[in-house]
Give the backbone structure.
Amino acid sequence: MTCATGTAGETYALTESNIEHYAAAYLTGTVTGDGVSIRLTPRPDDDRLAVVLPAEQRVTTPWRIVMIADRPEQLVENRMVQRLAAPSRIADTTWIKPGKAAWGWWSGLLAPDIPNAGHNMATYRRYIDFAGRMGLRYYVIDQGWASRPTGEGQPADVLTPSDGIDVPQLVEYARRRGVRIWLWTDWKSLDGRLDAVLAQWQAWGVAGMKVDFIYRQDQAVVGFYHRLLATAARHRVLVNIHAAFVPRGLETTYPNFLTQEGVMGNEYNRWSRKVTAGYDVRAAYTRATIGPMDYTPGGFRNVTPAAFSPQAPAPEVMTTRAHQLALFVLYPSPLTSLADAPVAYRTADGRWARGVSFLRMVPTTWDETRGIAGSLGQWIAVARRKGSRWYLGAITDGTARTVSLPLGFLGSGRWTVRAWADGASPTSIDERTGEVNAGGRLSVTLAANGGAAFMFEQR
C-alpha cells in the first residue's frame, strides 16, 4: 500500500520481507475506517489458523517494512525489501543470466506464415527465429506443450510432451540461434516430484521454468516456494512464478528467481478493460517499488480506449506504443517477456517497426535507479543506469501533459540522447536524436495514455 501524507511530497509504503516457515500477511480495512489492519493468510484446511509449527522448530518472523520517500517517485529507489531478505543461498551464480524473451501465449501464437499455427514445432521455431533475430536471450514456451493424460483442465504431465513436440530438438534448434528455452508448468504438476521434473528438464537443456496457477500465500505455499527455488537452483534452472504473491525478497535469497507475477499485467487486455494507462501509473508507484514484476510489456497493437475491445488472439492495448516502451524501464524484471507476436514487430513490408530499436537495446537489470519526477497516480518518470548508459521511461494516465524532467542524474558533461516519444496516433513514434546538458531539463509532451522512452550516452 502506497500513501501520500498530504504534506509536501512525502510518501510512504507498507510491505514485508524475508518470509519463511510462515504465512504471508495482507492488509484489510478497519471497523472504524481510519486505518488498515495486518492479518496473516489462513491455512486452506482450517481458516482459524495461519501458522502451525512443530514444537522444536525455531522461526524468524518476516520483517514488516515502512518505506519512506520525500517524493512519491523516489520510492522506486528503495531497496528495503531486498536488503532485509535472507542472503543468497546459491554459492555459484555465474549460470544465472537475465534477459528478454519471446513469448507466444498473449498473442495467441500468431504466425501467419505457418499453416495451422499453434502448439507445434513449426510455430515454436518461428518464435525462436524471432528471438534470435531480435537478440533476445530466451523463448518462453507457455501452456500447451505438455500432454494432459486425464484431459483438459487437469494437471499436465510435464515429463511428457504433447504429440509432435520434441523438447530436446527445440532446445538444440534454439541453441544454434543463441537462444535458450523456458517451459511452462502448473504447480500441481510439480508438487511432490520436484527433483524428478527438474532433473529431466535439466537433461533436456531447459534454461527456466514458468510455474503457474498457485493463487495462494498461506504457510504451506510459502514452504513450496522455498522448496521449488532451492531445488531449481540445484538443477541450474531459472524460475518465474505466476499467479504468485507479491515479492517479499525471495529473489535475494534465491537469485535464480528472476521474476514473478503478483501483478495485473498486459494479459488482462485479452478479456477486460482493466489495464488502463492510469493503472500502469499506479502500478509504478506501488507494485514496481517492491521487486520484479512479470507484466510482459511491449504490446504493439495500440489503440485509444474508445476504440479498444478485449480480444484474443491478437489483443490490443489502450496505451500508446511509446508508453509500452517506457514500461521496460519503469517496471523491474530481470526476465522481461515481450508480449506480442513476431509479426507485430514488423511492418507490412517486412522491416522492423518503429520502437523495436529501443526494445533491442534496453537491458533488464540495472546498476542504479533514480525516480526523477511525477505526481502520485497521475504520471511518473524513472531513470535507470546500466554501465555508462542511462535509460529513462515516462508515462501518463488518460490526461495529456507536458512535463519537465530534471537531468541531474546524468552527472556532468554533454550527453547524446535518443528519444522514442508519442506521435500523432497510438501506434506512431516520434524518434529523435539530440544533445542535452547534465544540469539542464528536458521538456517532454506526453499524449493521453502515452509515454516516452530515452537512452543517454555521454559524448
About this structure: Residues 297 and 327 are 6 Å apart (CA to CA).
